[in-house]
Amino acid sequence: MKYAITGATGHLGQQIIAAMQPLVATSDLHLGVHTPSKAKAYQEQGMHVAAIDYQQPDQLRAFFQDSDVLIYIPSKSHDSYSRVQEFENVLAAVQQANVHHFLVMGFIADQVNNPFALSAFYGYVPRRLAETDLNYTIVRNALYADPLVPYLPELIERHNVIYPMGDQALSFISQSDSAAAFAKVATTPALLQRGRIYTLTQTQAYTMPELATVLSQVSGQSIGYQPVSLQAFSDMYNQNNEGPMLASMYAGGALGLLATVSDDYQTIMSHPAQSLADYLQANYRKS
């Protein structure tokens, strides 16, 4: 078997590899990376490592060739146009490389009326795949819970959650739970259903006062909810020019478009995803 994974040295990619290792032979794992030196440890364990660039079709075809399952993790570009171009390159290579099943990462902010800067990309992918004859499955993630751990000290200092969300809710999944589900789907033929879209979330979404309550319980500090404006949020978190993209995501959230809750994780893993409180309790203590 050949399991190919793009973005293998990224945060999610590394966790998918860890989740795959108990399920398949190490030699079955083929890792596509931008910088091979970062994957040296994987190569030493017997995994296959290849340099790929989403703008280099020949590299993509060679890496994808004859994959039983290809797990595609998009790049971190901040606009839909760049990502759609990337996806078209990937899709063309998949169609030429005898890929048996294409397993694609999605995100819940893919609605046609969502102002999120990447919603056009996430909405484009399933529609584009639907017009092909490929065997494909999409796994949509809720927001990652992971960034809340390093963010918590700032919220303690502010005494408030400040997301510009109004009275709407956010749905979360941890990267480790997402990775476990990706690995289970990739290695379970019955779950690799053509055209199936799975949505990975915890069992509830949280309004901002509810999120503040969870964060207060985890930290032992009093945290309330005092939202800032979208523009203020964009200005505050504009490191690496990410501010407008992040603000646009919460603009979608304020419309109720990030509150999706699904039991697909339970379907895949036969148990519910780790709750937000349990995840934060376990990981805040380590930080």
Please provide a written account of the structure:
The chain is of the alpha/beta class. The chain has a domain at 3-141 and 174-200 and 260-273: NAD(P)-binding Rossmann-like Domain (Rossmann fold), CATH 3.40.50.720. Helices cover 42% and strands 16% of the residues. It has helices at 11-20, 40-44, 57-64, 80-96, 119-130, 148-158, 175-186, 208-219, 230-236, 243-253, 264-269, 276-284; strands at residues 3-6, 29-33, 48-51, 69-72, 101-107, 136-141, 143-144, 160-161, 169-170, 172-173, 197-200, 206-207, 224-225. A seven-stranded parallel sheet has the order 3-2-1-4-5-6-11, with helices on both faces. It has a two-stranded parallel sheet with strand order 7-10. The chain has a two-stranded parallel ribbon with strand order 8-13. Helix 5 (119-130) links the parallel strand 5 (101-107) and strand 6 (136-141). Helix 3 (57-64) crosses helix 4, helix 4 runs parallel beside helix 5 (119-130) and helix 8 (208-219) runs parallel beside helix 12 (276-284). The longest helix is centred in the N-terminal third of the chain and has 17 residues, at 80-96. It is globular, with a radius of gyration of 19 Å. The two termini are 38 Å apart. The model has no long low-confidence stretch (mean pLDDT 96).
